[in-house]
Amino acid sequence: MSATDHRSSNHDDELSRALRDLVDDASLPGLDTHLDVVRGRTRRRRAAKKVALGATTLCVAGALGVAAIALPQDVRPEPIAPAESPSPTPSVSPEPIPTFPAGIDAAALACLQPAPTSTGDDLPAHLSVGVPDLTVQTAGSVTAPVLLRFDGDARLRYADSATGAYVITRDGVIVSSPLPAPETTGEATPAPGSSAAWELDLASSASCDPTSTQPSPLPAGDYEVFALHRFPLTGYSALQADGTWGEETTGALFDGWLVADPVPLTIAPEPDPVVPAQKPVVVRDAIEADTSAVFEALRKAATTGAPAAVDLFFENRLTDSPGGGLMLTVDPNPGVNGSPGTTSDAGWSMAFFGGGVFPDQVESHQFVRLVGTFDVTLDESGATPTFTLDVVAGGTPSTAPAATDPHVCRAFNESLEGDGGVYDSFLADARTLVADRSPAATSQVYREVRARWIESPRVWWALLAHELTMQTTDVGGDQIVGACVEYWQ
Known about the structure:
By secondary structure, this protein is α+β, with helices and mostly antiparallel strands. The protein is built from 8 helices and 23 strands.
C-alpha cells in the first residue's frame, strides 16, 4: 500500500507543476483554487476503486477456499493438459500411369524372324496356354486351351480382333507364322480382373516354305509354340489408393501383340501306312491231272501278297521238306491231248509248313486233305516251279471242315437203282469236262462243275479221275466206287 501511495503523490506533484507552468504562461487568475478541487475528486475516485477491488478479491478467494474444502479428494480436477494440434490430413496423390513397353508388331512375327519374347507382366493383360506341352503327328493338328487374363486394378479399352494366332519356332527361329489378317472385331472394355478363353487349333505345317505357296508338313522334331493375340490399347485408368478410379488416359498407349510363354511342341513322324488286310485267295480243289487251277491260284497269292485259304484234297505222295515241312510233288499232266498247255503241265512242287494235314483212306489209296491259311512265295529258278506255304498265326484248324461225301455217295448208289439222278449228273459233268478243251485255270465250265461237287472232296476227285480215263480210253473208270464204297456198305 505504501508503495502505491508514494507513487500517487509523485504523480500529483508532476501534474500540478505542469498545470502551473501552463497557467504561468497563460497568466490565468484563480487557477490554484480549481486545481485543488480537481485533485480532491481524483483522489476520492482512486480510493473507491481500491476498496472495491479489495472486496472483490476477498470474496473470490473465500469462495475458492470453501470449494476446495467441500470437494472430495477423488473428484478434484486434474491439471488440464495443453490441447494437441490436429495432425495434418495427408493428401492423396493420383496413381502414376505406367509406361508400357514397345509393341511387338507383325513384322517381328514373320517367317525366319527370331523367336518372340513373352510379354509377361509388363502389360495389364496376360496370355497363357493351359497345357504344359503338345504333341502332334506330321501333317496333323492339335488343340490347346488359351486364357487371356486382365489385371484387377486397371480399366482397359482396346480394339479386339480374331483369336487363334500363334507362331512355331525351332532353334530360336520362326518356321511357321499363320497370322490372321489385322481386322478389328470391335472395341473391348473388359471388367477389371476378368478373363477370356478360347481353343487354339494348331497345325503341324510350315507357312515359311519359300518353294511353295501352300503350307507344307513340318519335319518330325522338337519345336516351341507361342500363342498370340493383338492388343492395341487405347484407354487406361488405374485404381487409386482410396478405392476410386483415376482419370482415363486415351490414345495409342500400346500397339502390338500379347505373347504367351512358349510351350514345347513335339511333332512325331507319321506311322507306317497300314496295309488293309487283303481278301484271301481261295485255293479249294482236288489235285488230279489238270492242276492249272490250283497252280494259278497259288501264283496269285504269291504275287499279290494276299494269304491263301487252302483246302486241297490229293493223293498222299508227301515227303519231308528241308526245314521241317512237308513236300508235295505234282506230276506232269498226262491228259493234255492237244489242249493249250500251261506252266503247271510240266509239273511243279509245293512245300508247306504248318496247317492241318488230315489223312483220308479211300480203299487202297491214301489221301490227304490239307487245310489252313498260308503266306505263299514262289521260286521259279529251278527245273520246275516251287511254292512255299507258311501258315499264318491262327491259320491251322483243329479239325477238317465238314464234307458231304457220305450223303452224296449214298445218293449216288440209290440213283443206280432208281431214276439215276446223281449218277446221271456225275456222268454228264464228266463228259462236259472232257469236251471242254480249255485249261482248268481259265475254264468257266471247270469252275461251274467244281462248284457243284467241291463240298464232297472224294466225289470231286473221283469225277476228275473219271474225266482223265475218258480222255485216254474213251470209257469211264470206277473211281467213284473206290471213293464211296465204304458209305454203301
